[in-house]
Amino acid sequence: MPTPAISVAMSVYNGERYLALAIESVVAQDFEDFEFLIVDDGSTDASAQIIRRHAEADARIRPILRENRGLIASLNEMIALAAAPIVARMDADDICRPDRFSKQIAFLAKHPDYGVVGSWSEDIGEEGEPLIRNGMADHPLTHEDLLAAIENGDQLICHPAAMFRRDIVRAIGGYHAAFRHCEDFDLWLRLANVTKLGNISEPLLRYRRYPTQVSARHATEQQIGTAVARIAWRERQAGRPDPTEKLERLPPIEELDALFGSPGISRDVRERVALGLRYSASAMRDEGFDLLVNHLRDGGRRDGMWRTVARLLRFGEPRRALRLAATLTTTLTV
Questions:
Q1: Final residue before a domain boundary, out of 179, 214, 249
Q2: CA distances from residue 18 to 72, 92, 94, 125 in whole angstroms, order as listed
Q3: Structurally, how many domains does the chain consist of?
Q4: Which of 172, 176, 260, 261, by CA, is between 20 and 30 Å from 17?
Q5: First CA to last CA across the chain, in angstroms?
Q6: 248: which residues sit within 8 A by CB, 6+ positions away?
């Protein structure tokens, strides 16, 4: 078989609800020279059957059906198996625009100094309905814009909309195991040290948002990992070794000072994460709430916290609202 131009990489875990739509949007691309790697990561629903059915209908689909190993292991497996020099990421609940691949591979051909290109995206809900972003900025376009976005804590590249050069990602060790649920952010930061990254200013992907998606269910772990990845990036920028490189899992926040050999990092990460999680209903229902309370007891910033009390009531968490109010009152009088 001739080498395809693109290897599409999709990992699925219990994704039967939207999987057929996602696969069909890839198969319908106007750029047809690709192989489609789909890992079923130990699903217990009908995902494997859906994958098999589509593989029987389209020879470009390469199904990999096995036990559960997690998303990062699946992504690294597909990068290792990819026959093409270009890899296109895709998730099992999103939808590609038909010209996504043709637009992105043309960009990479025209810009050989860019190792990664993403695109803008259109947010949709559970039933495919358009969602309003409420003024949220879209992803940066040029590499220079992306470097500024790293400094400002803004969005970089939408993971399922990304297309990248396989060998560059292999050369830096692929996705790192420690950064579960923010593995893409860590990867973009490491790639920014060796190549250029950018985005196409068109919504080439319809990105689905719903309460049970992974990013919503693991908001606290994601925000902690994102903060640590940014610190690791600054260490590399300063010419110092990255202590997270070989970790299988990030240590607790309290141990970050020791990990990076610098006092104050633990407190800074706790504050950044606590302030960012105030708006997440899922985080305020899990360990994110305790992190917020500990941040206040440690003398951290209090701005906007009384609004967070009201927000907890709207989230249906009256006991946590009362606990936060009591913490604010107590720390104010200390």
A1: 214
A2: 21, 6, 8, 12
A3: 2
A4: 176
A5: 72
A6: 177, 178
